Amino acid sequence: MKKPISLIAALLLTMGPAFCQGVRVAVAANLQSIVKVLQKDFKQKTGIEIEPIVGASGNLSAQIKNGAPYDVFLSADMNFPETLFKEGLSLKKPVVYALGSLIICSSQDIGFENWERVLMTARIKKIVIANPAIAPYGKAAKEALQHKGIINEVSSKIVYGESISQVNTYITTGVTEVGFTTQSLIKDTKTPLYWRAIDPKIYAPIEQGIILLKHANGNANAEKFYQYIFSPAARTIFKEYGYR
User: Region 141-158: what's the mean pLDDT?
Assistant: First the structure.
């Protein structure tokens, strides 16, 4: 007995999403360039397309709390994912997927052998860092300045970017003489830059966390992307962009 066409159509509509589920990924701004590489590699391996939504980790976390339909959150730290987990907004506990590297950077060859001294000279009028309240790299930069004991001396020079991507724009366009950012900028930009890695001992480890959100419940493609982030292929890409 043939099934009515309307029933077959209904079955296809029911089955369709299982085969073409989208994956919305909230992505910390420091991953803006690397996520494009991950996106391309993941699609080549699985045929699945992801939709990255890039922003400061704190802003993305607030959006998730307010109901934004994201499936996976790649944060620049662990604090925001851990809060989301405690509030029951995820399917799994957050996991560290990479350690970030903080650098001091400029489009000018100003010398960074004794970078703390350089920042206090009259030559440096503006120092850009990401907003420490919402951006982990900004928090790390503030900790580094505090460790060196110069934060009070340079506070009047500090300007804040709402995300690390805005910080990078200020650095590469010369809006500020110097800034603190992620090492991944060096691989991402074609602009000649001068930089030095900040000793990781003088700021808390930038443990970047991933979390599978409640919105991904039943989304097999979201689960595949989540697992992909821990694959050797993804780890190789992270390493190429300066992550540990």
Answer: 97
